[in-house]
Design brief:
Residues 172-232 form the Pili assembly chaperone C-terminal domain. It is found in: Periplasm. This protein is mostly beta strands. The chain contains one helix and 19 strands. The protein folds into two domains: 4-147, Sandwich (Immunoglobulin-like); 157-250, Immunoglobulins (Immunoglobulin-like). It has one helix spanning 15-22, and strands spanning 4-9, 31-33, 37-41, 47-53, 60-68, 73-74, 78-81, 84-87, 92-99, 112-121, 133-144, 162-166, 169-174, 180-186, 200-202, 206-210, 222-225, 234-240, 243-250. Strand 18 (234-240) and strand 19 form a beta hairpin.
């Protein structure tokens, strides 16, 4: 799923100029992350996220925090340190995500979902009538208990999902203790997403209805997923009766 960006303004400009700036692409962010998702393994004491200032002329402040699955800002059972720091022009730094004592209260038989947030704060300008925009990046943060740490050569758990057809729709079943993010759905390996599909995330040991019609996915549905590294492999399903299982996986 794509990162979410929010824009904040501090001063006013003529309407035309304001509209032009707000239309600027999210890729213009000065403070950038080195990944699209964070995995904190229960066997590790912390996970370091590298941040970099893409602006070669100006220093920026980087503000970091964590939210729970409902979007509430938290400091327990995970905390981002330091909560704010200065990153010099063209330089790199790190934010550490550390567990707190409250981590002991989390389920140890499945993953837990959080969100890592990073907001850039531009330096104050002395120019009059200048609009300053701060971009915020929000990515998924998964806490993975020590007993669920995945071996490098293990079969991807995403390949264990199944599809169940009910009428003209499919339900995606996730029998694993991990989250699964489905990023694409088509009737062919190189095909376009079917009408009505929206990326979805299936929680551990749960099911979600797949957007779009079952008929539009054809006889061998193809679903893409996002792995721990941001890759997007595609799973080709074989169906018998109303149940479909992964039969082949190809690069995304």
């Amino acid at each position: 799923m794509k990162n979410q960006y929010h824009r904040f303004t501090s001063r006013c400009l003529p309407a035309l100029t304001l509209a032009a700036i707000l239309a600027a692409p999210a890729g213009n962010a000065a403070i950038a992350l080195d990944r699209t998702r964070v995995i904190l393994n229960g066997s590790e004491r912390a996970e370091s996220v590298e941040i970099s200032n893409q602006n070669k002329e100006l220093p920026y402040l980087a503000q970091a925090w964590i939210e729970d699955a409902q979007g509430n800002k938290i400091n327990d059972p995970l905390v981002a340190l330091p909560p704010i720091q200065r990153v010099e022009a063209g330089e790199k730094s790190q934010v550490k995500i550390q567990p707190t004592a409250g981590m002991k209260m989390l389920a140890q038989d499945k993953e837990s979902l959080y969100y890592f947030n990073l907001r850039e704060i531009p330096p104050k300008t002395d120019k009059a009538n200048t609009l300053q925009i701060a971009l915020q990046t929000r990515i998924k943060l998964f806490y993975r208990p020590a007993g669920l740490v995945v071996a490098q050569n293990a079969k991807p758990w995403q390949e264990n999902i199944t599809l169940t057809r009910q009428g003209n729709s499919y339900t995606v079943n996730n029998p694993t203790p991990y989250y699964v993010t489905i990023s694409s759905a088509s009737a062919a390996y190189k095909g376009k997403d079917i009408t009505g599909f929206n990326a979805l995330m299936i929680a551990p040991n749960s099911s979600e209805v797949l957007g779009g019609s079952a008929a539009s996915l054809g006889s061998a549905p193809v679903l893409g997923y996002i792995n721990d590294y941001g890759g997007r492999p595609k799973m080709i399903f074989a169906c018998q009766s109303n149940t479909c299982r992964v039969s082949e996986v190809k690069p995304g």
